[in-house]
Every structure is written in C-alpha cells, then in structure tokens.
Write a structure and sequence with these properties.
C2H2-type domain-containing protein, two-stranded antiparallel ribbon, 4 strands, zinc, alpha+beta, Znf_C2H2_type, zinc-finger, nucleus, elongated, single chain
Length: 57
C-alpha cells in the first residue's frame, strides 16, 4: 500500500506513513526550543532557526 498515510495530525491536515513521523511532527505545534535573538520567533529545529536568521541580515 504505497502512499497510504494512516497517521493524521489533529492540529493540521498533515498525514504520515509511520507513527514516529507523526510524533516528531506533533512537536512542531508545541515544543520550539530554538529562539531567534532578533525577534520573537521560535523554531523546532536548529536548521530552521539558522535559515530564519538570514532574514535579519
């Protein structure tokens, strides 16, 4: 069953093939440990913060 995504996020319309993918995604709605020092945005992954930081340059 390629393409079947039985795990649905309850906070948005994202769907996932595996449960761990849904669990990891769910953190994006709650836990955001990486904070921008130049504005009030927060990010789930360090990479996303680094990419965002470029907008302040």
């Amino acid at each position: 069953c390629l393409g079947v995504k039985p795990y649905a996020c309850t906070m948005c319309d994202m769907r996932f093939i595996q449960r761990y993918q849904l669990e990891r995604h769910s953190l994006t709605h709650t836990v955001k440990p990486y904070a921008c020092t130049m504005c009030d945005k927060r990010f789930f992954q360090r990479y996303h913060l680094a990419r965002h930081s470029l907008t302040h340059m």
